[in-house]
Design goal:
Elements: E1 2-15, E2 24-33, E3 36-42, E4 49-56, E5 61-64, E6 66-68, H1 80-87, H2 92-97, H3 102-110, H4 114-130, E7 133-139, H5 146-162, E8 166-174, H6 184-201, E9 207-211, H7 219-231, E10 235-240, H8 248-255, E11 259-262, H9 268-276, E12 280-283, H10 285-290, H11 299-304, E13 309-311, H12 325-336, H13 340-346, H14 349-354, E14 371-374, H15 381-384, E15 391-396, E16 399-403
Parallel strand pairs: 1-4, 1-5, 6-7, 7-8, 8-9, 9-10, 10-11, 11-12, 12-13
Antiparallel strand pairs: 1-2, 2-3, 5-14, 14-15, 15-16
Helix pairs in contact: 4-5, 6-7, 8-9, 12-13
The structure holds N-(iminomethyl)-L-glutamic acid and fe (iii) ion (FE).
């Protein structure tokens, strides 16, 4: 007799993501003991159970808790005006050069308290959770001074403590050069001297990211910053080759970054380097289509070259005002050439890899009991039925966090 805190019965198809593809099991049962899976398999092989709570999946599909591995969901205000300006023909780079873009959100974030930031960001966290997200990465990068960058990371910490998702925090102080600095290198010096040590000491983030881009940070800035971050025990990430080809992808490979995001403009050499170095490539399809005139992220080429490919929302007020990671996966199929199965792996198992986590994103014995009972027969519906909330029951750490 297996004791269970939770049993999910009558599952039509469960996408375990174990091995390659969806790793589907039909007519399945999931048994949970506390926060872990103690059995997953066909009903015919299930042990006798003495259980507490039971969920009837009604013949529908179950998938791992979704993982949104790249977001900027802590911010204040919005930038609908810039969206409208771009629709009239201005570019993201032009708006940024004119003092808009990241710096405009920076002004709002600097003026906000942790409590205000938590209130605002929690709405997005709840929207994500309702749609099946159980782990989300959150970056700083709109504070751009020592105090405000720390404030953003404290906000992320509170979201993880009070919200229904696990939060993985990333320091992105190198998101834009603050107005108080003339040179990007001087701000990088300040980050290394004044922010990194505190972030590492107080465990406010587990990784450090840099926006390598014309008008933002150079490859040399990025290299210096990420080396220092590695010395502090943080993992490295790069925003690379989004608006111009500046060498961010090769830097990510050289430094052994955990992930590189965007990648619209990578060339074949970059792709080979990313594959060789095992850098998880984040396809941020929403940002690609949200900004007009972006080249399609070569998701197909990345997979074919042997890269591990994740998909994420990039949720932010400037280039991807959306909390819908399933939609990001749908767009990764039609815009970036992933198969439906690859896109689903991108928001589960490969999202976990982008965060350096191996205890989730896959449903098998011993893994975290984070999963979603869908209101759909096929897991593929998640990437096929755009914009529809398909999560009927969301379970995180063995507990129901939302039920439609
Ligand atoms: O990932 N590329 C840089 N950073 C964000 C945009 C941030 C913003 O515009 O507020 C991104 O797209
Ligand atoms: Fe981003």
């Amino acid at each position: 007799m297996l004791w269970a805190s939770l049993v999910v019965e009558n599952i039509g198809r469960v996408a375990t993501m174990d091995g390659s593809g969806l790793g589907e099991i039909e007519d399945a049962v999931i048994v949970v003991d506390a926060d872990r899976i103690s059995f997953i398999g066909p009903k015919s092989a299930a042990p006798p159970l003495s259980g507490v709570k039971r969920i009837d999946a009604r013949g529908c599909a179950v998938v791992p808790g979704l993982i949104d591995c790249h977001t900027h969901l802590v911010f204040a205000g919005d930038r609908s005006d810039e969206f409208a300006r771009r629709a009239r023909g201005e570019t993201y780079a032009q708006i940024m050069a004119a003092g808009g873009g990241i710096r405009s959100t920076m002004r709002r974030v600097r003026a906000a308290s942790v409590a205000e930031l938590v209130d605002d960001a929690m709405k997005r966290v709840l929207a994500m959770s309702k749609r099946g997200v159980t782990t989300v990465e959150v970056k700083s990068g709109y504070g751009l001074d020592v105090k405000s960058e720390i404030k953003m990371l404290e906000t992320a910490q509170v979201l993880g403590e009070r919200g229904p998702v696990d939060v993985v925090s990333t320091l992105l102080a190198a998101h834009a050069v603050p107005p108080e600095y003339d040179a990007s290198s001087a701000w990088v010096d300040a980050i290394i001297r004044e922010i990194l040590p505190e972030v590492a000491r107080d465990q406010l983030a587990t990784s450090c990211d840099v926006f390598v881009e014309a008008g933002a940070f150079s490859v040399d800035d990025g290299r210096r910053l990420l080396r220092a971050a590695l010395d502090h025990g943080l993992a490295a990430r790069v925003h690379a080759e989004q608006l111009s080809h500046t060498g961010g992808a090769k830097l990510a490979a050289e430094i052994g970054a955990l992930s590189a995001g965007h990648l619209e403009l990578v060339d074949d050499d970059d792709i080979a380097a990313l594959a060789d170095a095992n850098v998880v490539c984040e396809v941020l399809s929403l940002a690609q289509v949200f900004l007009r005139g972006q080249r399609a992220i070569p998701g197909r080429k990345l997979v074919d070259a042997g890269c591990t490919v994740a998909v994420a929302t990039d949720c932010n007020p400037g280039t991807a005002m959306s909390t819908d990671v399933a939609l990001a996966a749908g767009l990764a199929v039609t815009q970036c050439g992933l198969t439906a199965e690859e896109a689903l792996r991108g928001i589960t198992v490969n999202g976990a890899r982008a965060l350096g986590l191996s205890d989730r994103g896959v449903l098998s014995k011993g893994k975290r009991a984070d999963f979603v009972v869908l209101d759909a027969k096929s897991p593929v519906d998640l990437v096929y039925r755009w914009g529809e909330p398909l999560a009927r029951v969301v379970v995180r750490r063995g507990l129901v966090v939302s039920e439609a």
